[in-house]
Amino acid sequence: MEVQTSHFGLLDVPESELIRFPKGLPGFEECTLFIMVSPEEDEPFSFLQSAQRMELVFVVADPFLFYAEYDFELPHAALAELNISSPEQVLIRGIISMGDDPAKTSINLVAPIVVNTDARIGKQVVLAATQYKTRHPIFSNSSSGSVLKGG
User: Fold this and answer.
1) Mind listing the domains of the chain with CATH numbers?
2) Which SUPFAM superfamilies match (predicted)?
3) How does pLDDT run across 88-144, given as a tens digit for each residue?
């Protein structure tokens, strides 16, 4: 499948790499097909690109890279909806918020993107009764800009 993007140009994506979000993402319910674009293997950030709207792309990252102690239990309804039966099937990503000041870059820990890697089905799961917020800084306050290793 050819996917036209505003950031990466025209991508030739095998159907097997599409991730289906049956209900879309909050605010983008009409967009149900996405691909994960990873620029380089050692790069902490990747991009969740809509296959239907070329301008719709989210910067995402593995939240455990920035908050090693990040911990939550997926609701039973989400497990059923995503047809998840084992932890090996699960890919977790947090949406990154960036602004003009890179030091204020943050990750959303209250609503992770959860993907069943076997079935290629995804959902943004809003965690209930959690101490997490939509904006957790990913860089320390030091001038070196080092990545946080726990939270």
Assistant:
1) 2-137 (2.30.290.10)
2) BH3618-like (SSF141457)
3) 999 999 999 998 898 899 999 999 999 999 999 999 999 998 999 999 999 864 333
